[in-house]
Specification:
Blueprint lengths: L1 E2 L20 H22 L15 H8 L3 E5 L30 E3 L3 E5 L11 H11 L13 E3 L12 H9 L11 E4 L20 E4 L13 E2 L23 E5 L6 H13 L6 E5 L8 E4 L6 E3 L7 E7 L8 H7 L3 E5 L18 E2 L8 H6 L3 H19 L2 H16 L7 H5 L24 E7 L3 H12 L4 E8 L19 E5 L19 E6 L7 H13 L5 E2 L2 E7 L4 E5 L8 E2 L3 E5 H9 L5 H8 L3 H13 L4 E2 L21 H18 L34
Parallel strand pairs: 2-4, 3-5, 6-7, 7-8, 9-10, 9-13, 13-14, 14-15, 16-17, 16-19, 17-18, 20-25
Antiparallel strand pairs: 1-2, 10-11, 11-12, 19-24, 20-24, 21-22, 21-23
Organism: Drosophila rubida
Main location: endoplasmic reticulum
GO molecular function: glucuronosyl-N-acetylglucosaminyl-proteoglycan 4-alpha-N-acetylglucosaminyltransferase activity; glucuronosyltransferase activity; metal ion binding
Amino acid sequence: MTKCKGLLGIEPRNINTFHLKENILNILTYTLLTIVVICAIWLFCDISGHRDRFFYSKRDSVALDLSLSHTQEVLLRSDSEYRGRNVNCTFWDCLNIYKCEHDTLKVYIYPLQEFLDEQSDKVATTLSSEYFQILEAVLNSRYYTSNPNEACLFLPSLDLLNQDVFDKHLAGPALASLNFWDRGENHLIFNMLPGNAPTYNTILDVNVDNAIVLGGGFDSWTYRPGFDVSIPVWSPLLQQSSILPAHTTTHRKYLLIVAQLNLLPQHLRSLRELSRSASSAEQLLLLGACENRELTSRCSTMHHAKRWDYPRVLARGKFCFVGRSLRIGQPDLLEAMSQNCIPVLAIDNFVLPFEDVIDWSLAVIRIRESEIHSVLRKLQSISNVKVVEMQKQVQWLYSNYLKDLKSITITALEVLESRIFPLQARSSRKWNAISKNSHSTFNPLFLTSLAPKSQGFTAVILTYDRVESLFLLIQKLAVVPSLQSILVIWNNQRKAPPHLSTFPTIAKPLKIIQTRENKLSNRFYPYPEIETEAILTIDDDIIMLTSDELDFGYELWREFPDHIVGFPSRIHVWDNATMRWHYESEWTNQISMVLTGAAFHHKYWSHMYTYAMPGDIKHWVDDHMNCEDIAMNFLVANITNNPPIKVTPRKKFKCPECTNTEMLSADLNHMRERSACIDRFSKIYGRMPLRTVEFRADPVLFRDNFPDKLKRYNDIGSL
């Protein structure tokens, strides 16, 4: 039920108190007055939702106050049924894409309403200044529309930012009463602080049904990838006066500053032990609450007389610790970034703000909660050059996406727009590049945008003693137009390779190299016999690829010479149960690795693999005879921040003539080791460099109903 008053505070039901006379003139007068009053009510209450923005005005603050005074009242019944949210929502089944007919995202904001319990007159929630700024940011943006019929998304005026301050039993009915709710389809819900005491779970405890949640407390359990949007938890301490300029030269005395007040007790104990055992007082500054408990000050845990202004004190440290609290999302992340301090994040499974588009590995150090005791050792191993680069990235990300609620809101809408209109989305490079005028390059090879076609590629075949399949593979490779030469790496020291005269007669150069040791890394050695920039590394049992598929793969590599371009793909996933990375070989639309058993790469990567592989990864691969392809994917992704590219839809790569006992992949322990490889490599790199994408490259006119003579590549395998 909606209570809506007219111009002079006269309610519609009071019209009936007018005394009517029986003459015609009075009847006409009464009718005219009724029409005037109804029109006035419709104008000021915006019953249809199609009027102009009466509740927000761009003119001045007086108009804003006046609009707030005309808030509608809506009576509600307390919600008896709790459904929560649809945990299975994805972009494809909970978003009606057909409402998004325009080339740009359009968002409709509901008129301001006050939702009351019809029995107790209790208010469901009050409008906070933070949510007011969010609504105002949308209102003044290019995304806003006053017409719900042309809107793609709908934004309620109901403030659900902080679950501590609204009634969840009334919030659900309030959302359900909205004119276009339809179980939350195409609706946006902003929530920074989910959950209530004592559990403080990471899920908004309200019936939001199929709505998109823009939340500040997601973990990998509750985040719905590609549907929800992770946003930061805003801090009221962040005023413009506390933001350091980009050119600041503040002396950073401390390596690590810990100033978070609400850390879990076990983590705080670990940090105190670390502080006591630190070799220097400048390694770790551990701060806590002062006696007055003010949020704008911190006091040393060792010397309580020493008081520091907060968050200004964070500008004195290179790194600032952000750990787990009762709520997984904390404002400490933004407070550290506002002072250009590199966050050290020790929150397992936490989904960072705008993680879909922001490469946080360039600006944040992530450690597992179980590794807090070794955080100083990890930070000391980071070079000063790397620290400066990360500080620049922190400052750039903060000033562009996170400096105020307006920036956060507009960034969230752009993330949604990039999902709905992917052709208009900016690339990952543009999301994370410090500036358009930067002279830095994401291509470590410093190549031209298109590799020369005349060179062709060198096929490097790693083999042991499968002579029959090796010969068959050589015959298939020889007819590929872009092949320049073949190099056979004979990895068997107990048996000599067949004499060259026994090999198939082909029109391309062929050379055989017998290695000194049986190592998988031999496939990536930068042999001087390789004269081309492009290398096709291929196993001797990959005989199902056609000439068109290989030629098309090379053409694609020419456009992306700093990527790994190949055929068999895999993905890495995080296992919440074991808290480890897991190698997944199931057929999915997502990929993060391309196996080098059939892949193109630049010879530069062979040099980097052999001479510049981090840690002991190369030796570990050779000792365990596994994961050389995963190691190469880690290496390339870590330097370029680019994912690999899968070519053609083919997914079956087993050799039909080969027995399973001869194949490494037949061993059950092989898969377990590959999962352990990913987990081990991520620790050595200090981050997870692999990038997950849903992308596959197919030839033009592939599967189109055109004559074969019009297609350049006809023989493309379907599976």
